[in-house]
Amino acid sequence: HYELPNIAERAIKNINTKPKYISADTIYLNQISLSYLADKKIDGLIPNRKQSKEKIGKLSPNPYHKDHFEYDYELDAFKCPKNQYMYFFAKYYEPHKDPEKPDKIKRLYNNYEACKNCKARNKCCSSSQTHKTITEYGSEMQKAMNHKMEKQEYKDEYAKRSSVEGPFGIFKEQFQIEKEVVTGMIKTEERINLDALAYNLIRLHNIKQEIENKTEDLEDFCESTSIKNQLKLDVTIF
Fold it and tell me: 175 and 215 in one domain?
């Protein structure tokens, strides 16, 4: 999560040139990465989770999922699928588990009156909720990055990275291509297994500490794993 500065410094040393752009996956979108890019005056290209999901066509099919709440950067508000605005009302700082890492910033948005009178409330909210609350993480630097990555010129620039990182060239023999596809699938499966192992270790620790695990935690893990490996995961949670 926090290795972008180290990776970038090694790359710059190798090529003896400071690049105009540095592109990175969503997992590197954090204060340490953004501060490094700002200090070095390098134009970063890091999409947020929704932007990554949109790029690979994996937005949630649920029309009332957060994926379909449009953020208005001028109003600092989210527009829901029923065209009602949910406004910023609170900001919290969550201490990072690692004291050397910056605190996490959590911003909350809602509109109690709009939800109260909404005919779609039962579809949008759970039975225990009186209204919808959108939770957004990140600093002003992250908001600026999100805004930048909505612009087509930066989407196009980021897309170049995907073409450069393609798994194989168009002139390779078919058997070579098939071999690389299989190898890529195996490596992806290994990464998912490691992710699942890490999640289970955290869960076991939480159980030992009598910390309740929420369904949302597992949903978040599955979603982030899907984005990181750019594949669709069909998961049943019970």
Answer: yes
Q: Report in angstroms the alpha-carbon separations of 237 from 18, 119, 214, 218, 234.
A: 46, 28, 11, 8, 10
Residues 6 or more apart whose CB falls under 8 angstroms from that of 190 comprise none
User: What span, in angstroms and rounded, lies between the C-alpha atoms of 88 and 103?
Assistant: 20
144-175 burial, b for 16+ CB within 10 Å, e for fewer? ebbebbeeeebbebbeeeeeeeeeeeeeeeee
For the chain, what's the residue count? 238
d(CA 59, CA 20): 30
* Same domain, yes or no: 9 and 37: yes
18-23: which pairs have CB atoms within 8 A and are 24 or more residues apart?
A: 18/42, 21/45, 21/157, 23/157, 23/158, 23/161
Do 54 and 149 sit in the same domain of this protein? Answer: yes
Give a yes or no: residue 219 inside a domain: yes
Q: Whole-structure pTM over 0.90, yes or no?
A: no
The residue segments making up the domain with residue 21 are 4-46
Widest CA span in the chain = 62
- Assess if residue 237 is contained within a domain: no
Chain segment 97-151, per-residue pLDDT in tens: 888 888 889 999 999 999 999 999 999 998 889 999 999 988 899 999 999 999 9
Residue 70 φ/ψ, nearest 5 degrees:
-85, 125
The answer to the question of residue 202 being in a domain is yes
Same domain, 200 and 129: no
Q: Which of 52, 70, 105, 83 is nearest to 231 (CA)?
A: 52
